[in-house]
Amino acid sequence: MTDFTTFLAPDHGQPARLIHVVHPDAFTEWLTQQPVRTRAAVAANKVTGRAGNRAILPGDAAEDWAMLLVCNEAESSPWRIASLGDGLPEGTYRLAHGEPGAAMLGWALAQHKFTRYRAADPQGPRVLLTGEPARIEEIVRLAEATALVRDLVDTGASDLGPAELEAIVEALATKHGATFSCVRGDVLADEYPMIHAVGRAAAKHRAPRLIELEWGDPAHPRIALVGKGVCFDSGGLDIKPSSGMRLMKKDMGGAAHMIALAGLVMAAKLKVRLHLLIPAVENAIAGDAFRPGDVLRTRQGLTVENTNTDAEGRLILADALTKAGEGSPELILDYATLTGAARVALGPDLPPVFANDDTLAADFLAAGAAVHDPMWRLPLWDGYDDMLKSDIADLVNAPDGGFAGAVTAALFLRRFVPKGVAWAHVDTFAWRPAAKPGRPRGGEALGLRAAWGVLKKRYG
């Protein structure tokens, strides 16, 4: 893991190159106040004051230079100077005016590289100075959590199966003095029958499992974090086309988010009793794969007619949500790369949040807006509950017709959440299809910082 502590440092007046961040609306006025050599450098670099313009500004000596960035990002945005984080030479920098604040996160993340399969170019850190050293520790934690999600999602399924997810959670439990447990293989058939059904066709060393971690004072409010851990999704017997299977290493993105969030909770010592649950499977194809038309038992007792083996994520989440509810938590959060319908509705950047509690939903939206980790509320529309009816079982997992796919998936999950427990479900994409400053193409934490904001507000 990248050592993010090397990218940020307290400002004690040490030598550093300046970064001028100028809003397009203020550019003309700023330029008129600059010396002739600065105006000449701006002109030579064809800087017109448009967002994204940049230039090296000369100083008195050859090594004495500063950086100009024209930027229309809000001062509260973590991505305000992220485009410079991996584009400048190694060295020490400070903003010419003001404090970097939240922008420290983007600066640090821009220097993180996923290097499991390819070595990064050797280069020393770009250190950003801040007059707010008390903020560094949490920024580093957020960067580590975000990078963990990215790295887990970017890892190929050959190197990250259910057993590897188990090892990651066990290591996290050891680090924070938490209790770890795991139910694996055929034992699941009695205790967690839908997790077993979805994962039983995988090779023995990739057997399904329910991974659990518990931490904190039992006297504190109990919260449950549930993450979908489908380490690879072939679609099962309702097999995906090759184009649909290409990115299915990322189908454990919900688990990655909840593992990272659990780490933030424990590192900050929030006053909660934390329960992390990761149903981890590979949705494989073999002679004993679960079939379309099978009626599956659930841990809760309901029966589910399986109408689509490619709607497997909600099945394993249902058993995990049931187990979470047995602990009588006051709050349950689940994250899952659950439906393509959510992407059709809101695109790759904007995860929908479903909640059975208006206050909780409002908290998510407010937290996301505050930290530039946006979300959008979609409805748990009771009128669509009838779409889940089955002729032979209590409900189906995937209604015919394809209407409101993200909503009906959330309604399915709601059947397994205890009445009276505040619950939010986030259908995250966990992937960035095109790079942006500080955010490379690939695995991405979408909704992580918003969830952290919610938990901090409630329990911090």
UniProtKB/TrEMBL annotation:
Tell whether Zinc is among the UniProt keywords.
no
Superkingdom of the source? Bacteria
Q: Which family does it belong to?
A: Belongs to the peptidase M17 family.
What InterPro entries does this protein map onto? Leucine_aapep/pepB (IPR011356), Macro_dom-like (IPR043472), Peptidase_M17_C (IPR000819), Peptidase_M17_N_1 (IPR048816)
Q: Which UniProt keywords are present, listed alphabetically?
A: Aminopeptidase, Hydrolase, Manganese, Protease
Q: Which residues form the Cytosol aminopeptidase domain?
A: 308-315
May I have one GO cellular component term? cytoplasm
Write the Enzyme Commission number(s) for this entry.
Answer: 3.4.11.23
Q: Which organism is it from?
A: Sphingomonas mucosissima
Q: Which GO terms describe its molecular function?
A: manganese ion binding; metalloaminopeptidase activity
**Pfam families to which the protein is assigned, alphabetical:** Peptidase_M17, Peptidase_M17_N_1
Biological process GO terms, please?
Answer: proteolysis
Q: What is this protein called?
A: Peptidase B
Q: Which PROSITE patterns match?
A: CYTOSOL_AP
UniProt entry tagged with the keyword Protease = yes
